[in-house]
UniProtKB/TrEMBL annotation:
Record's protein name: Uncharacterized protein
Source organism (scientific name): OM182 bacterium MED-G24
Membrane-crossing residue ranges in chain numbering: 26-49, 56-76, 82-101
Lineage: Bacteria, Pseudomonadati, Pseudomonadota, Gammaproteobacteria, OMG group
Key words of the record: Membrane, Transmembrane, Transmembrane helix
Amino acid sequence: MLGTVMNLPNPNENGLPLFSTFIDGVAAVSFAVLLDFIGPVAFLVALWLRKPWAPLWAYAYLGIFVLNTFVALVTVSDTLGLPQILIPLVVSAAFLAVIFWKRDYFA
């Protein structure tokens, strides 16, 4: 989360790849804060309180990243580079797998 705050000027200046387009300016910063700060905090609170909606939140939240990664493979891989696209895909898939296998924790 500290990285999100320190990286806020980057999406404002360079743009943020989102489903085959680059958004920039205030929209990019707002989206970065939503995805990098508010989303994880909501999941951590739900995880701590064992809310039954926590796995669904995680599936939707991480699903956005996975779908965006597949779109980025086709559209912006020459701009961003393959490692910058594949590493988040592997990490998101690992988190999805752990949440799926441990979903009874929330019941």
